[in-house]
C-alpha cells in the first residue's frame, strides 16, 4: 500500500508572510485560469497545515449552532438530514427546499463567529440551478457547501436505495459551483455516494475527477470497514472528509488513525440532533409520566442530571448584555428590568 502524508495537503503559498494565489491549469486548456486560492484565510485557514483533525459538529438550528460554538467548535455544518427532521418532521428523502435551507443558513450564520458549512444536497436542480444555489448560500453567510452525486430525490447517505447521477451531470454541477463562488475562500466539498450504488472503484474515480476539476475537499460517503477506508486513503490524494454517523455504516476508527490517513475533517452531522432527541424524550416522558421532569422530592429543586435551567440558559443567550444595552438607550436612569 502506498504511504500517505500525515499532514494536511492545504499549504500556504509564498514566503516571508506573503501569500499568493496559484494558477491551476486544467487538462487541454490553452492558458492558465485562476480556479482557486490556496492562501489561508477564513475556512481554508482552518485546514492549513493542521496537526490534528478539524472536528465539525452538525447543527439543525441557531441554538444548536450557538451551543457548538460555545463548546469550542471551530466550524459547524448545517445538515440537510437534521434540518429536514427538525423543521419538517420528515426523513432525509429529498423534501428540503433551497428556500428553507437558505433561510436556516442565514439565521445561523448571523449569530456565529465561526464558519458555517451547508449541506446543499444535489444542488436543487441542474448545473444552472447549482449556480444560484451557490450564490444564495454565499449571500446567506455560508463559508462552504457540500454537493453530492445522487439522482433526485436524494436520500441520506446511510440509507438504502440510493441512485447515482451520470458522471457528466455531476461534474457539470461541480464546475458550476466552483465557477459561481465569488469568494475564493468559499469551500466546495465534493461528495460521492457511489460505494453503495456502484462500488468502491466508481467512488474513487469520481473523487479523483472531482479533485481534478477543482473541489477543495473530497467526501466518499459510507465506507463500510477499515480496509475500505485505508484503500480510499491510498488511492485518493488530497484532503478528505470522513462522515461519522452514530449507528451508521462507517466504523469509527481513532481520530489519530484517520488523520494520518489524510482525513483532515471529521464530520459528525447528527450527534447533536440525536442527543437532543434523547434529552427531549426523557424530559417529556418524565413530564407526562409523573407531572414534572424536575421533581426531586423537595419542592421545586432542580435536578441537574435532567438538563439545563433558567439561569444557565440565560447565560447561553447572553441575556444580561441585552439588559445592559436596553439601559444605554433609555431616557432615564431607573432600572425598569423588574
General description of the model:
Mean pLDDT is 84; it is low at 1-41. The chain has two domains: 37-269, Phosphoenolpyruvate-binding domains (TIM Barrel); 308-338, no CATH class. It is globular and about 65 Å long. Helix 2 (62-70) packs parallel to helix 4, helix 4 (98-109) packs parallel to helix 5 and helix 5 (127-139) runs parallel beside helix 6. The chain has helices spanning 42-47, 62-70, 80-88, 98-109, 127-139, 167-180, 194-198, 200-213, 226-235, 255-260, 271-290, 310-316, 319-329; strands at residues 22-24, 33-36, 54-59, 76-78, 116-119, 144-148, 187-192, 217-220, 240-243, 263-268. The strands form two sheets. It has an eight-stranded parallel barrel with strand order 3-4-5-6-7-8-9-10, surrounded by seven helices. A two-stranded antiparallel sheet has the order 1-2. By secondary structure, the chain is α/β, with parallel strands linked by helices. The chain starts with 21 loop residues before the first strand and ends in a 9-residue tail after the last helix. Helix 6 links the parallel strand 6 (144-148) and strand 7 (187-192). The protein contains 13 helices and ten strands.
Amino acid at each position: 500500500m502506498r504511504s500517505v502524508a500525515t499532514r494536511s495537503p492545504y499549504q500556504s503559498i509564498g514566503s516571508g508572510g506573503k501569500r499568493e494565489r496559484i494558477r491551476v491549469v486544467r487538462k487541454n486548456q490553452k492558458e492558465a485560469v485562476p480556479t482557486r486560492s490556496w492562501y489561508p484565510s477564513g475556512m481554508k485557514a482552518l485546514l492549513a497545515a493542521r496537526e490534528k483533525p478539524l472536528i465539525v459538529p452538525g447543527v439543525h438550528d441557531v441554538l444548536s449552532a450557538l451551543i457548538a460554538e460555545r463548546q469550542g467548535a471551530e466550524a459547524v455544518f448545517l445538515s440537510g438530514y437534521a434540518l429536514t427532521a427538525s423543521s419538517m418532521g420528515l426523513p432525509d428523502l429529498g423534501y428540503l427546499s433551497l428556500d428553507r435551507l437558505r433561510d436556516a443558513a442565514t439565521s445561523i450564520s448571523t449569530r456565529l463567529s465561526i464558519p458555517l458549512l451547508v449541506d446543499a444536497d444535489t444542488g436543487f436542480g441542474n448545473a444552472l440551478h447549482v449556480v444560484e444555489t451557490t450564490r444564495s448560500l454565499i449571500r446567506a453567510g455560508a463559508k462552504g457547501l457540500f454537493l453530492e452525486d445522487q439522482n433526485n430525490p436524494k436520500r441520506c447517505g446511510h440509507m438504502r436505495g440510493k441512485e447515482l447521477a451520470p458522471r457528466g451531470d455531476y461534474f457539470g454541477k461541480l464546475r458550476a459551483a466552483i465557477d459561481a463562488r465569488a469568494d475564493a475562500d468559499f469551500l466546495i466539498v465534493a461528495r460521492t455516494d457511489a460505494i453503495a450504488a456502484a462500488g468502491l472503484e466508481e467512488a474513487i474515480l469520481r473523487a479523483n475527477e472531482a479533485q481534478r476539476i477543482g473541489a477543495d475537499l473530497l467526501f466518499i460517503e459510507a465506507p463500510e470497514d477499515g480496509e475500505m477506508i485505508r484503500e480510499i486513503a491510498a488511492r485518493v490524494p488530497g484532503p478528505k472528509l470522513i462522515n461519522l454517523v452514530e449507528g451508521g455504516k462507517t466504523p469509527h476508527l481513532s481520530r489519530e488513525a484517520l488523520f494520518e490517513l489524510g482525513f483532515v475533517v471529521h464530520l459528525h452531522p447528527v450527534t447533536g440532533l440525536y442527543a437532543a432527541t434523547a434529552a427531549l424524550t426523557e424530559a417529556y416522558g418524565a413530564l407526562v409520566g409523573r407531572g414534572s421532569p424536575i421533581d426531586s422530592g423537595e419542592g421545586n429543586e432542580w435536578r441537574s442530571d435532567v438538563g439545563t435551567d433558567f439561569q444557565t440558559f440565560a447565560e447561553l443567550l447572553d441575556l444580561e448584555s441585552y439588559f445592559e444595552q436596553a439601559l444605554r438607550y433609555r431616557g432615564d436612569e431607573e432600572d425598569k428590568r423588574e
